[in-house]
Amino acid sequence: MNYCFSARPALDVFSPKLFLEIKEYYDQEAKGVFVVTDSKEANKVRSIIPDAVTCEVAAFIREKWDDLNFERFCEYEKKYECEPLWKYIYTDRFLIYRDYDYVVKMTSGFFMFYERLFKDNNIQVYYSEAIATLQGYVAYLVGRKMGVHYYGQTGAKSLDGTHHYIFDDPYSCHINIAGDYLNDSYSSEEYQKASHFLTQAEEKGFIPTYMITNGVKPRFRLRFLVLPLIRLILSFDKRLNDPCSYMYYESHKTVTDPIKYYWRYRKYKKYFHKADYTKKYVYFPLHFQPEASTIVCAQKYEKQIYFIDSWAKSLPADTLLYVKEHATMLGHRDPLFYKHLKSYPNVILIDPYESSFELSQKAVAVTTLTGTAGWEAMLLRKPVLIGGNVYYEHAPGVMKISDIYGKYLELLNAWVQPSREDVVKYLCAYFRAVRPGVSYGRANGVSDTDENIKLMAKSLMEAIGKHQYQC
To answer: Is the pTM of this model over 0.90?
Structure first.
C-alpha cells in the first residue's frame, strides 16, 4: 500500500519510525510519503530515512501563490462537498487571526496540495494526528472524496500514559466500543479489572498525564528580561517571515507572551473564588483554547461564554453555575472574558487549583464540551451534559446536548442514574477498544522508542486490515 504521513514537529520522529516498522514487518512493498512544512522539517525526516520522499507544503504554495484565488476557493468548496467551507476554516487556530485574502489563498493551496499529492502518489492511507488545523481537515476532506482512508492514534482517557485508541474521523470519536455493550458478555478477568479501575476513580479520580507537568502558576522569571531581545532577533528569521509557512509565520511575536500572561494573571486572579460546597451547583470546567477539543469538536460553543450564557439563563433559583478556570490558561485568556463572566450573578468563577474531582463529586450535574471532567463525572455516575463530539458520549448517564437554553430541568428530571454495573460493563468494552502504546509526543519521548513504535504499528495495521476486510 501507499501511505502518506504527517511529519510536523509532533510527528517528525514518530512517523518515519512508524513507517519503517510497517515496511519491515507488515508490508514490505509499502511506499511512504511524508508531509512537512519546509526543508527544516524535511531534513529531520531524512535523518531517520535518508531517501525519504518528502513533500513541502510551503514550497508548493509559494510556487502556486498566483494561482490561488477566490474562484478556486469557491470551486474546492463544491468539489469536495464541504459547504460551508468557512465552517472548516474556523477550526484552525492559526488562520482565524489572518485577513480574508490570506485565508483564501492558504485554503485553496491546501486543497490543491493534497489533491496533487494523493493523486500523483496513489495514496491509500493518510496518517496524522487528531485534526486540529485546516491543513489536516483539508487532507481529510480531499481523502474522503478520493478514497484515501484517514487514521490517527491518541491517548485513551485515564490511560493516556500507557494506552491509546485508533480513530478515523475528524472528531476522534470512532473508538471501537460495541453499541450494545450492556448486553455483551465479559470474562471474570475483564470484569474484575474494570471494577478495580472504577473503584480507583470513585476514591480519588484521575489526573490527565499532561496536567502533571502543566498548569504552573505564572510567576516572574529573570528570562523575561531577554525575551524582547530574542523576539527582535527572531523577527529577522526568513522562516518566520514566510507567509507560506503558516504555522511558523510571525510566530516570533509570541516570544514575549509569557510576560503578558504573568501580568494578566497578577491583575485578574482577584476574580477567582474558593468553592462553597454548601451551595447547590452545576460544574463547568473551562477548556484550554484554542485547541481541537473546542474549535473542531465543539464548534458551536467554541466561544465558551456563549455556552455559559445559555446555562446561566437555564438554571433554577436554587442552583449556581461553578465555572473553573483551566490551570494552563492562566494569563492566556482575554481579560474581557473575566469581566463578562462577572456580569452573571449566578455564575461563580472557581480558582483553577480547586480539586476538579471534589467539584464533580459534590455537583448536582457536570457539564463540559468534550473534557475529561465529563468522563470523570460519568465514572462517578453523575448527570453529565456534553456540548461537543467526544468518544464517551454514549457512556452510561451521559447526555449530549445541541442546546441547553431552557432545557436543563427537563433533562435532569428525565435522567436516570445508571447502575454501577452498567459503568463497569462500559469500562469492560472500553478496555477492549484501547490498545497498549503511547501516542506521538507523549510521555517525555517514550512514544518514539522502538518498543512503543512496535505497539503502535501493530495497532494501526490491525485497524487498516479490519477496514480492508469490511470493504
So the answer is: yes
